[in-house]
Amino acid sequence: MEFSEYFPVWGRLESAQQNRILASLVSRQVKKGTLLHGASPDCTGLLLVKRGQLRAYILSEEGREITIYRLFDRDLCLFSASCIMRSIQFEVTVEAEKDTDLWMIPAQVYKQIMEESAPLSNYTGEVMAERFSEVMWLVEQIMWKSFDRRLAAFLLEESALEGESALHLTHETIANHLGTAREVVTRMLKYFQSENLVRSGRGRVEIVDEAGLRRICDG
Length: 219
Prior knowledge:
- The chain has about 220 residues and is α+β, with helices and mostly antiparallel strands.
- About 45% of the residues lie in helices and about 20% in strands.
- The protein has 8 helices and 11 strands.
- The strands form 3 sheets. It has a 4-stranded antiparallel sheet. It has a 4-stranded antiparallel sheet with strand order 2-7-4-5. The protein has a 3-stranded antiparallel sheet with strand order 9-11-10.
- The termini are far apart.
- About 25% of the residues are buried.
């Protein structure tokens, strides 16, 4: 499929604007673990996922990570072009969670067309509002939900994404997603295991009682 089939407002752009995007468009194939944005202060550009999975996270001064959202097929990442969004005052890192095919639109090209095109400007605003809604949801989870509920929800989400109950995750990886220390994850997984909810091994967590995890999620 072509870029035009992935970009929701393509049909509402003028032909000259479409041609400018196509002329500047960069197609990339990246391996799992590739850092796409955040290693330097440069503005990467907007990323549109064709196939794969990206993770956007923020990093504390102490080096602790927390996932703020993920990007899947057809998702657009605006935070990788934060230089054109004056409202963004924090640094976001974006990496590939799986082998990913994507397109990159240079930030300046996108900005110029956005200033000319009301449909693109409106679409950008909608995507930005959706991303900030996800960030606010995350803040709410951290502030008001206990860690056992957050961990249970994370394991269930991972299982749904991967389509299996056996998850290839280290305690460190889980901690990075949830913005906590590895030791906290280890303690809670040991508790889950003692309750026969999961089986935890080296680099692996298997869900044994999905209903039990859902009960924890529901409080």
